[in-house]
Amino acid sequence: MGCSCQHEQTLLDDKKELLEDVISAYKGKAGSLVAVLQDVQGICGYLPQPVMRWLGKELGIKPAKIYGVATFYTQFRLTPVGKYLIMLCQGTACHVNGAERIETAVSRELKISSGETTDDGVFTLDTVACLGCCSLAPVMMINGRAYGPLTPDGAVKIVKDIYKKETQSGGEVQ
Question: Is 70 exposed, middle or buried (0-12, 13-18, 19+ CB in 10 A)?
C-alpha cells in the first residue's frame, strides 16, 4: 500500500523547512548520504519519491544513487508505516521456538504479510533477522517494546488489545 504522488508532494511541501535544515547540516560532506536519509526518514516517516528527487537536486546526487542506497539498507522504507510497527524476530532462538507460527497467526489476524501495512494504517508487519531478545524467544517488538515469550494466541491477543485501545477513543482509529 503506497501513498499517492499528491500526498507525497504535500508531505514535501509541509516538511520543507525541516528538510532544508538537514540539507544545510550535511551539504558538502562526503559520505553523508546514509545520515541524510536517516534524518529525512525521521522527519517523513519514510522516504517518499518526491523527497528523494528533491534531495538529489539539493545535494547534487543522481536520484538513482539515492534510490540505490535507500533500497540497499533495510532500515529505509519507501512506503509509509503504520502507527504500530510490529517486528517479528526470525533469529535462531525464535525460529526453533516457533516464530513461524507467530508470524502466521499475526498475519492471519491483520490480513497482511510481512512488509505490508493494514488498510487503516494502524499496523505494519515486518520480519527481522534478530531483535537481540533471545531469552524471550519467540519474541516480537511493537514500537520498541518487546513481547515474549509468545504463543500464537498470545501474539494475536497483544495485537487485538492494541487495536481495541485505538478504536475506543471515539470509535475511529487514530
Answer: buried
